[in-house]
Fold this sequence. Notes:
Elements: E1 2-6, E2 15-23, E3 29-36, H1 47-51, H2 56-63, H3 67-78, E4 81-85, H4 88-101, E5 109-113, H5 114-118, H6 130-136, H7 152-163, H8 173-190
Parallel strand pairs: 4-5
Antiparallel strand pairs: 1-2, 2-3
Amino acid sequence: FLDTETAGLSIDDPILTVAIVSCDRHYNLVEQVEYGMYLPGYYNTDGAFKVNQIDMVEHKKKYEGKFYDNLRELYLRLNNSVVLAHNADFDMPRLFKMFTRNGYGFNTLRSRCTMKLTAPYYGYRGKVSLANLAKKLNVPKDLGLGTDFHNALYDARVAYECMKRVPQYQDLESVLKWVTLEQKIKKLWEH
């Protein structure tokens, strides 16, 4: 499960943090990790830092000089994997742009959107916020990670908690099979 926090809504706005919550196909939690991304002179506004409750001075102190190391480690984690993200249509293009802008290409990176996967089962049409879905599924607010949305690690963990509560997805294997099927269909259309 993945989430990003960005410095704005444009695809050109930089990513501030990327969080990954890893689990096995039975939702046994394996790892939670967050990567801060900071490049000097790249952030022209601190508005997003305020929305995301990130102290820009502390963010700079903590992550300045680590961008390329964090980018490489993140790339190695994500390449050849399947990513589940709430509103993947927002997160994934920004990730791809960040990686390609810095010379990285993926062998395989497949994604599924937890918003699209879960919304129909709970009477939502189209987009449903992670906060509303979490409330509907009785996900506790205190996950030991802070309690506010717009925190990449918290949001990735909430997406994980939501998915494991959806009866149709009790085993992540069913989600992964759809990803494989979608990839096969896409390849057929390309030829």
